[in-house]
Amino acid sequence: MQLNPQTISEQQLTSTTLPTQTIILDVGGMKCAGCVMAVERQLNQQPGVIAVRVNLATEVATVECEPGTVDPQKLADILTETGFNSQLRYGSAANQKLTFKERHRQEMRDQIGRVVICGVLIFLSGIGHFHQMGWGPIPVVSNIWFHWGLATLALMFPGRSLIVDGVRSLARNAPNMNTLVGLGTISAYTASLVALLFPRLGWQCFFDEPVMLLGFILLGKTLEQQARFRAAQAFESLWALQPTTAQVILSTQLQETTQENSAIAWSSPTVEVPAEQVLVGDLVKVFPGDKIPVDGRVIMGSSTVDESMLTGESFPVTKQPDLMVCAGTLNQSGALIIATTRTGEETTVSQIISLVETAQTRKAPIQFLADKVAGYFTYLVMGLAALTLIFWYTIGTYIWPEVMTSGGVNLAVDAPLLLSLKLAIAVLVIACPCALGLATPTAILVGSAIGAERGLLIKGGDILERVHQLDTVVFDKTGTLTTASPQVTTCVSLSHGFSDDRILQLAAAVEQGTHHPIATAICRAVEGRNLPTIDAEGFVTQTGLGAAAMVDGERIWVGSAEGLIRCGVTLGESVLSIIPPGQTVVYVTVAEELVGVIGICDRLKSDAKMTVERLQQMGLNVVLLTGDRFSVAEAIASELELSPESVRAEVRPEDKAKAIASYQQQGHRVAMVGDGINDAPALAQADVAIALGSGTDVAIETADIVLIGDALMDVVESIRLSQQTFNKIRQNLFWAFAYNTIGLPMAAGVLLPGFGIVLSPAVAAAFMAFSSVSVVTNSLLLRRQFH
């Protein structure tokens, strides 16, 4: 499998027609989808900002703005003042990796502390419940003043930051999950304090409820954070691929491989420097077992290199002088001396990381509904809690008086206000905007990281949704389904004045001015026959038709049958039958007289047939699209076992996009797989564009999915990964909406009159914590499907 580092590292991460400036901010303090909406709203209000993408799972905001119109530090300051502690992403990839790890370690330390506190709070408050259930008095712990003190300490210390953040968010008109939890805990604590200070009211104290509520909330946040870090581990592993140091050779003028230079190079001293400080042109020595620190060209030595971190291909690749290597790949068997071509953020692996990170902020369209709901969700919940309180206090307990002696007996004794208050608190704490906010980003985080590990770069959540809707996959032929290494199989002279070799020489003279695989095949055939090359001038190329040049004062034209006809040359049946079916025919004219024909055959890639079969098994219609002759296309289709209806041949490059559009007009959702410049319009037209990593920069820039390797089976894997990731998004969103749709009415007491079922605030808090954790855990299950 060949890898083209230059292609990947030069690709653009955006395809806007106007230049834009991209600012990346690390944003802290986001708790739920409501926070995401608040951050996006703040940033979008700033002059010069074009687009904002905020990722809750990775806590990153990507801002696109007009160049020179926005002060990046000002954006970070605005968010910090709003309550979201933010900073610009500075430094090298290594520093970013270090920051990521330090944040992880700090979170782990905080999590350990939270787990201990949660355990103590839940245990001590649980004893109060056991006492109420008739377990008998327990010294000290059974005293109501002990529970008052426990609740007070819980709110003042572990719950303080949560409550303060909730109040500040409400004051900023951007309430979040902490706002709901804070209102619930303060309400429960206040009601219990009133019952303690004014016993004549006959209210029951329930100090253990806010304590357990905080315990479950903090425990849920701990589990959720741990699950989120597990989801980010695969992405962190991409950072780990980047080498930190390089052995730079001090000697210069060794770019050529000669016996003298080789001896000097291997014996020259080296200095160890940070990989990011290596300059283009520096010579780097890499020993067996070391990671290659830069993108570069091997000038001395030979070895096998493990490129699985880029391509997903487990077999090592042999590297010899003049072959390219990529940073982060592992040198295995021999020492290499490499001339640096790209360093730092320009290397292939850095560009891949940047692309993956950008993809993780692009939302699936289905997420916009969740975000829109989440933006008003907390207001809705607070309104529902208020209605619950008013309804049960003024109407509910009078319509169904039995609730005071059934489901509510342990909760409120004979106090309608207390029962109503507990139900309202349960409504506040059971609501889970976190699940809505984490549904998409965690799935994309896991899916995109899995893809990057396997050499499949999916450029965002919006791509996942379009892939899920596909029903047709269109393949370009040359270089995509075939090896792009065609060989001349036949050369026939049609004029007594020209030998077969002369025909080849003339064709090669013209084709040396082009870069088409057919031109390469003709030039290779001349070299194979040890024929001298002929000089030409005045090259003219007509895409899809042919090429012409002047040789020894005569105009030589080489091209297809259509181009020949346009030149006014008529083809007879005898000429058409010279080349066997299934081969590409190239015609050669001298002074507009047909003098020879050349037959060229391109072989299918070894995994082409299996790829087509797997796609068909997935229910997708596979189409072959080529500019080649029908006979050639039909021969390829026959090998692939495609029906004649699935073949579109003799399609010129500018008409390939029209062919894609015709399928779309019939209601099909189309993916286009290609690798060449002439495929770019069709790739742009398709619903999903898939480009091979060995293809041209234009094709890769246009593509929605980039397959770094050349394996066609990666097309199947990329579609399968996209579909499975999108399925996880839909499952997460379904669970998040279903949970809130069912949980909120239950907490409001819908089941209390008929069934005596009521959720205490502590139980509601446990359910809320479970909701967030379940969404993230479900995203993590995606990794199991791709082991």
Automatic annotation (TrEMBL):
Keyword DNA damage on entry: no
- Broad class of where this protein is predominantly found: membrane
Q: Which UniProt keywords apply?
A: ATP-binding, Cell membrane, Membrane, Metal-binding, Nucleotide-binding, Translocase, Transmembrane, Transmembrane helix
Topological category with respect to the lipid bilayer: Multi-pass membrane protein
Which intervals hold domain HMA?
21-87
Where found in the cell? Cell membrane; Endomembrane system
Q: Please list every transmembrane segment annotated in the UniProt record, as residue ranges.
A: 112-132, 144-163, 175-195, 201-220, 373-395, 415-439, 733-752, 758-782
Keyword Secreted in annotation: no
User: Which protein family is named in the record?
Assistant: Belongs to the cation transport ATPase (P-type) (TC 3.A.3) family. Type IB subfamily.
Q: Know the name of this protein?
A: Copper-transporting P-type ATPase CtaA
Q: Name the source organism.
A: Limnospira platensis NIES-46
Q: What is the lineage of its organism?
A: Bacteria, Bacillati, Cyanobacteriota, Cyanophyceae, Oscillatoriophycideae
